[in-house]
Amino acid sequence: MRRVVEGLDAKLITGGYSGLNGKFTNSFFVLNEKGEWLTPPYHKTILLAFGEYLPGADLIPGLRGLMPQIEEFGRGPGPTVLDTGEAKFGAQICYEALFDRFTRRLANQGAQVLVNLTNDSFFQAWGQQPYQHLYMSMARAIEVRRPMIRATDTGISGAILASGDVLSLSCHPRTKVGGTFTRSRIGRTRRRPCS
Description:
Blueprint: H1 2-8, E1 12-20, E2 23-31, E3 42-43, H2 63-66, E4 81-83, E5 88-93, H3 100-108, E6 113-118, H4 129-143, E7 148-152, E8 158-160, E9 166-169, E10 179-185, E11 188-192
Parallel strand pairs: 5-6, 6-7
Antiparallel strand pairs: 1-2, 2-3, 4-5, 7-8, 8-9, 9-10, 10-11
């Protein structure tokens, strides 16, 4: 990773796995131009039930044995703003962006830009889910009047202004809908098709 970032001569925001209190965590990293951690990582706080933890596993003996395929990730301490020296990023992983309290706490902590890293691959069979996830995330950004950068490996990535104006969205991998938007708001979009 260090060699890749050094070749870019730019900072890199990326997701990956880290550790906290003896458990793996779903984490958000910012690396400087030399590929070194610029800030401590953010560890995901709001975990996905039946994906990142098994509800009730601590209370019901033997439950984990019945569902061993369900991971048991560690939980982070709460909403975290990562200061890169150039901007303060409100870190969100996956569906944390859907929670108004979580997003408001980021804004209250001084986040200038919300950055949502997500993987929508488990919803690929449901064609509308990536759009729902995108639009619900955008609503939280508009509520707190912060721009949002959304980076997905399998969903819809984009850059959205605090007003709700969409600067750009990636193409949806299945439907091939997306592209560059001209001055638009939700409901009044003018798309330039995906290439």
